[in-house]
TrEMBL record, chain A:
Primary localisation category: nucleus
PANTHER family to which the protein is assigned, alphabetical: MEDIATOR OF RNA POLYMERASE II TRANSCRIPTION SUBUNIT 17
Self-association and partners: Component of the Mediator complex.
Entry superkingdom: Eukaryota
The protein's name in its UniProt record: Mediator of RNA polymerase II transcription subunit 17
UniProt family annotation: Belongs to the Mediator complex subunit 17 family.
Region feature Disordered, mapped onto this chain: 85-109
Originating species: Molorchus minor
Gene name in the database record: MED17
Automatic annotation (TrEMBL), chain B:
Keywords: Activator, Nucleus, Transcription, Transcription regulation
Protein's UniProt name: Mediator of RNA polymerase II transcription subunit 20
Entry similarity comment: Belongs to the Mediator complex subunit 20 family.
Organism per entry: Molorchus minor
Pfam families: Med20 (PF08612)
Quaternary structure note: Component of the Mediator complex.
Subcellular location as annotated: Nucleus
Function description: Component of the Mediator complex, a coactivator involved in the regulated transcription of nearly all RNA polymerase II-dependent genes. Mediator functions as a bridge to convey information from gene-specific regulatory proteins to the basal RNA polymerase II transcription machinery. Mediator is recruited to promoters by direct interactions with regulatory proteins and serves as a scaffold for the assembly of a functional preinitiation complex with RNA polymerase II and the general transcription factors.
From TrEMBL, chain C:
Subunit structure: Component of the Mediator complex.
Function of the molecule: Component of the Mediator complex, a coactivator involved in the regulated transcription of nearly all RNA polymerase II-dependent genes. Mediator functions as a bridge to convey information from gene-specific regulatory proteins to the basal RNA polymerase II transcription machinery. Mediator is recruited to promoters by direct interactions with regulatory proteins and serves as a scaffold for the assembly of a functional preinitiation complex with RNA polymerase II and the general transcription factors.
Compartment(s) of residence: Nucleus
Pfam families: Med18
Keywords: Activator, Nucleus, Transcription, Transcription regulation
Matches recorded under PANTHER family: MEDIATOR OF RNA POLYMERASE II TRANSCRIPTION SUBUNIT 18, MEDIATOR OF RNA POLYMERASE II TRANSCRIPTION, SUBUNIT 18
Family under the similarity heading: Belongs to the Mediator complex subunit 18 family.
KW Methyltransferase (keyword) present: no
Name the record gives this protein: Mediator of RNA polymerase II transcription subunit 18
Length: 516, 208, 221
């Protein structure tokens, strides 16, 4: 009995030891789990700290996602708060956090919680549209309501992504704010309009640039401004806008250093020169002038439209006119407000005989054409002016080419005019003007007249002198009078053989060159 | 910035304002437009005896180059020009124990400024310490920077509205520099030449 | 457009409004050659936008004085400095008058001295010489500059200039770099001194930026 009792006691003692050990293990494991979360928290905080500005204010960790340190002067703050994910479950909103609204994304895998002010939550972008006139605009506005929302930010986004999105919202807001301010202040001939989240500026007559701030929060689904499906959003101009504001930020912080080093900080290099180089008041005034963001983007939009119009005009002419060939070469590199196109007018198979090169500089509201002879033609934004100019040059090209061809065939150019159309030389063309020339065969017995008109095309006439057949009459008694030149007879070019005008002319001249 | 010719216009018993009036009517008749006013002033400082041989510093301002102070230092053997920022005047104050100005020598030329095509015309009433001394006409031809290349044009233009009083020869200061590139300091030299003459001449006696 | 006032009128108006930056707030110190890299790293961390690396400079300074023996007592002396950049070919010359440091409050964190600073044409050296100035000494300063807000920090090595020797063969005067922290401001903006003191604290112990009293330095030697 005593033995059993003793055995029982011994077993109980052993069991106690085991239980105590198990208990110890359990607590230490619990401890480890808790420690890991704090460890995770600290590591994540460290990672966050590497990319974002954080500081400890009493018991909270406050961060700043604004662009203020990068040169922004926008007044809205971009503070956010970092808390432990665990704490959130106990107290749904920390008391000191100013704006912890919006749904808390479920983040089981993150030990950090980042709370962002509600006005910076969601997704924002700047929408830029170029539109033709008011009617288009209205239809787009209607479209706005019907189209679907952009994808909401993913629920699993970690703190950094959320901060990046918020920073983007802040940036877009600053950009839009700045543009709206400028739109109100600028004295444009057609005033800019700012309505709600949209700025409307007239770029060229009948064409508006619309800049909108689209901000959609996941919390407030009614307030969406999704991109309209109909008129396309201009990504290039949007990018330019972002770039322009970043440039402003950069300029705010990157002041030039003085040389020599004792000079004052602040004035630009140009301004430093103004005194000793005796700059006059115009130069000084120019130094103080800078284009506002809106002016710059309007200029870029103007150029964009001008480039598009020029492209369109050149392409349509190239399609319409098969003879001569019109090829245009756009420079691949161009500035946002200036580009350049080189146009070659040539005839297939006769490039070596004659080629008419033109260079067109496309600016913001005007075109400048440098012609073959070095003449500079300035044109407005109306595409018809460019069209007229090109047609005028097509005619001139044909006339010059046929004369150059004549020279190689031994014919003689008697005269030409590029600008017919006054009272002495025929009717005035409704658009552009006609060109003509006169050539004689090597022996002088044949004369060809060519007249190019933008509308009717090319007319070719031939005169023989003397006429091959001669019958004396009472008036013309002798054959020698026939040398004075005879009647011109039209050639039906369309019935002639030949690939193109010059080929036909070559054949015509060859056939008219007498053997004698 | 172009080439500037400065010439004196005789008042011939007329008052200063009247002469300016006559000239401005003539230039307006040619189609010029008034573009504000202009002012060129000159203060002269001489060295104190302790500094050794006497030297003179002329400090001039031209409203056409508002950010610049021009100084001309005359040592007796040569003239050294200097162009600086506006703070040079402050430095001259610091130098007051070395260089002193005679209060009676402050000269200035001021009046209307006209633009006509490529020309800029200024009709200046000259005063020396507030006493009227005469009329200076300044004509600038902007597109050219070499005096020799536009002197004939400028002469013709000047004679066109000054009549026989227009200059027949380039200003003395420019005569050796006709082929050089003209700069704003050359205008300052011309003004100083005229101011020096005006200071020596007896006052006409009429206050402008 | 109204008639332009005389330049002197506008200058005195500017003086009255106290918008001309004519006071220099200055702290100076030095660092040994072997630690200058560490200092530059620290400055890169502390200063504004050094993303493109610190700005280097290479200047030649000529120190003139204009003096006249007055009848009674000590002669009047006006120091004038001309500085030009050797590394920027077309930069204007800089003429500078630096006054005696203000005695003022002992507790002031920085040296405060009047300074008139202007860009000028290259004729300035001849102009000053003919004006009666005497060239006291000249040197070449080469180094880096930084900015933090309105503060300018220069870390420069000073080289002797002997006669007409070419610039490449100059010798350094010591094995250390001169460190200067300065602000040019209109008079009366003493708050800037406090900012400078705080900034200087952050450079310790690499470099001790202090108010250097030249008069006392002179008497120590």
């Amino acid at each position: 009995m005593v033995q059993i009792y003793a055995r029982k006691k011994a077993l109980a003692g052993a069991a106690n030891v085991l239980l105590a050990g198990a208990e110890k293990l359990k607590t230490s494991q619990n401890e480890a789990v808790r420690n890991r979360t704090t460890l995770d928290f600290h590591i994540e905080l460290l990672r966050l700290r590497q990319n974002w500005r954080l500081k400890k204010v009493s018991n909270t960790i406050i961060g700043d996602l604004s662009y203020r340190t990068a040169g922004s002067k926008y007044l809205q703050t971009g503070t956010f708060e970092v808390t432990k994910a665990e704490d959130d479950e106990k107290a749904s909103s920390p008391p000191s956090s100013p704006l912890p609204s919006g749904p808390t994304p479920a983040k089981q895998n993150s030990a950090l919680r980042v709370s962002i002010p509600s006005e910076l939550q969601g997704v924002a972008y700047i929408e830029v549209l170029c539109q033709k006139d008011h009617e288009d605009l209205c239809s787009v506005n209607i479209n706005l309501l019907g189209s679907g929302p952009p994808p909401p930010p993913t629920q699993t986004c970690i703190g950094s992504k959320k901060l990046e999105a918020a920073q983007n919202v802040l940036f877009c807001k600053e950009l839009f704010n700045q543009l709206a301010k400028e739109a109100v202040q600028l004295q444009a001939p057609i005033p800019h309009m700012v309505v709600g989240n949209q700025i409307m500026a007239t770029v060229l007559p009948g064409i508006q640039l619309i800049i909108g701030l689209c901000h959609s929060t996941t919390a407030d689904k009614k307030q969406q401004h999704p991109s309209p499906s109909k008129s396309e959003h201009d990504h290039v101009l949007e990018h330019s806008l972002h770039q322009l504001l970043r440039e402003v930020h950069h300029k705010n912080t990157h002041h030039p250093f003085p040389h020599p080093a004792t000079g004052p900080l602040g004035p630009s290099k140009k301004r430093m020169f103004a005194g000793p180089m005796a700059a006059d008041r115009y130069e000084l005034l120019e130094m103080t002038k800078t284009d506002t963001l809106l002016e710059q983007i309007v200029k870029q939009a103007q150029h964009f439209i001008m480039r598009m119009r020029t492209e369109y005009v050149l392409d349509t002419i190239a399609k319409e006119v098969k003879d001569p060939l019109i090829s245009s070469h756009w420079n691949t590199l161009n500035s946002p407000t200036q580009s350049c196109v080189k146009i070659n007018i040539s005839t297939h198979g006769y490039d070596a005989v004659c080629r008419t090169p033109l260079v067109i500089h496309v600016g913001e509201k005007s075109l400048k054409c440098i012609c073959r002879d070095g003449k500079v033609m300035n044109m407005s934004y109306e595409p018809q002016e460019l069209r007229d100019l090109i047609f005028c040059h097509i005619n001139q090209h044909q006339i010059l080419a046929v004369q150059a061809l004549a020279k190689t065939m031994g014919w003689q150019a008697l005269g030409n005019s590029n600008h017919l159309g006054d009272d002495s030389t025929g009717t005035v063309e409704p658009l552009g003007n006609a060109s003509s020339c006169l050539m004689s065969s090597p022996t002088g017995d044949r004369i060809i007249a060519v007249r190019c008109e933008p509308h009717t095309g090319i007319q070719v006439s031939v005169a023989h002198s003397p006429r091959t057949d001669f019958f004396p009459s009472r008036l013309v008694t002798e054959r020698k009078w026939e040398h004075l030149g005879g009647q011109f007879r039209d050639v039906r070019l369309d019935k002639m053989e030949g690939r193109n005008f010059l080929h036909k002319m070559e054949l015509l001249m060859a056939s008219l060159t007498s053997n004698s | 910035m172009g080439v500037t010719i400065l010439t004196q216009f005789p008042t011939e018993n007329r008052t200063g304002p009247h002469t300016i009036d006559v000239l401005s009517k003539r230039i307006m008749a040619l189609g010029a437009l008034q573009q504000g006013q202009f002012l060129v002033d000159c203060e002269t400082y001489t060295s104190v005896p302790q500094l050794g041989p006497q030297r003179t510093v002329h400090v001039l301002h031209n409203s056409e180059q508002p950010a610049t102070v021009f100084s001309l230092l005359e040592t007796g053997t040569k003239t050294i020009p200097l162009a600086t920022d506006g703070l040079f005047d402050l430095l001259m104050m610091k130098m007051s124990s070395f260089y002193t100005s005679k209060k009676q020598t402050k000269a200035e030329s001021k009046g209307p400024r006209y633009e006509i095509g490529d020309f800029c015309v200024k009709l200046g009433t000259v005063t020396v310490s507030s006493n009227f001394k005469g009329i200076l006409v300044e004509v600038e031809y902007r597109p050219c920077v070499v005096p020799a290349m536009c002197w004939d044009l400028l002469k013709e233009f000047l004679q066109g509205f000054l009549g026989l009083s227009g200059p027949t020869n380039p200003p003395a200061y420019l005569q050796n520099r006709m082929q050089e590139i003209y700069s704003p300091i050359d205008t300052i030299h011309q003004y100083l030449e005229h101011f020096t003459i005006f200071r020596k001449s007896p006052g006409i006696g009429m206050r402008a | 457009m109204s008639a332009p006032g005389t330049a002197m009128d506008s200058l005195s108006a500017a003086l009255k409004c106290n918008i001309i930056p004519n006071q220099e707030y200055l702290l100076q110190g030095s660092v040994l050659d072997q630690y200058v890299e560490v200092l530059l790293h620290r400055l890169r961390g502390l200063c504004d936008n050094v993303d493109s690396g610190p700005e280097s400079f290479h200047d030649h300074e000529l120190c003139f004085t204009l003096r006249a023996g007055s009848g009674s007592g000590a002669p009047i002396v006006l120091p004038l400095r001309v500085r030009r950049a050797l590394d920027v070919a077309d930069a204007p010359f800089q003429l500078r008058y630096v006054g005696q440091q203000e005695l003022g409050d002992k507790n002031r964190p920085t040296v405060v001295r009047s300074s008139i600073d202007m860009a000028c044409s290259s004729t300035i050296v001849e102009f000053l010489t003919e004006l009666g100035c005497r060239l006291d000494f000249e040197y070449i300063a080469r180094g880096y500059m930084f900015r933090k807000g309105r503060m300018k920090i220069t870390v420069s090595k000073i080289f002797k200039v002997a006669g007409n020797k070419p610039v490449e063969t100059v010798e350094p005067i010591s094995q250390s770099y001169l460190v200067e922290l300065s602000v040019l401001a209109p008079s009366g903006q003493d708050a800037i001194g406090e900012d400078m003191r705080i900034f200087a604290e952050q450079l310790r112990p690499l470099v001790q930026l202090e108010k250097i009293d030249y008069k006392r330095l002179g008497s120590m030697m």
